[in-house]
Fold this sequence. Notes:
- The chain is built from 8 helices and no strands.
- The protein starts with 17 loop residues before the first helix and ends with a helix.
- By secondary structure, the chain is mostly helical.
- 78% of the residues lie in helices and 0% in strands.
Amino acid sequence: MAGMSAAALSLEQAPPLSVPLRFFLTAPVFGGAAALILIIYGGDALTNRWAPITLGLTHLLTLGFLAMVMIGAVQQLLPVLVGSSVPRAKRVSQIIHLLITLGTLTLVVGFVGGDKRLMHGAAALLGSGFLVFVGVTAHGLLRARSGHFTVTAMALSIVALTFTVGLGLYLAIGYTGAIPLVREFIDLHLGWGLIGWVVLLIVGVAYQVVPMFQITPDYPRPLMRFLTPGLFLLLGIWSVGRGTQTVPDLLSGVAAGVVAAGLLLFAL
């Protein structure tokens, strides 16, 4: 469980450079598209949370840029940090990249143009792409040779991503009017995406790469053992309170506050 040295990395299992690179090269294109929207629409793109152009801009950044980079990074880090290679890595990455790229484009155009058929198509493409990604990542984590706390953090982040995608698919279909839309689920979608998927993955990877590359002591062992499971549990309590009203508002609020305190602790 001690800090990992460069010698402990499974460098021989590193995937071909094309596996993560296709995602890393696509992300700036989506980021540039988001910037172009801001140039064209200016402040109008940020005045209303529910405006179609705002929703399109948001998903250009969260799906097209942020998720694209993270998906590429996970496919590179999984074999190297965890010691579990992705089977047929090049072919799998091509499939994931194609589905996520087309799905993001279709979703954004569907939001901006208000086309329900495009929204349904985007849900199918994105759902399929993330299903493949979650499947191969879960398979790799189950076969992990490393017993480091990073494995637990990555596993929890993948579960959180599953919740995020599931909520997103529901919201996308609900946005078209095909099913009732529960707006409280939008905050859950944001919470599981930004804290559950993004933060838990960053924290887990930091446990290994910060001591390795910055030549620092390991993170405190109690923090590595309890932080990511604790954040995941608290996020679940907050979600139940936010989405179903079965948890008292006070308890849900306390859970959210402790999540914020945990993130501050990690930053410090």
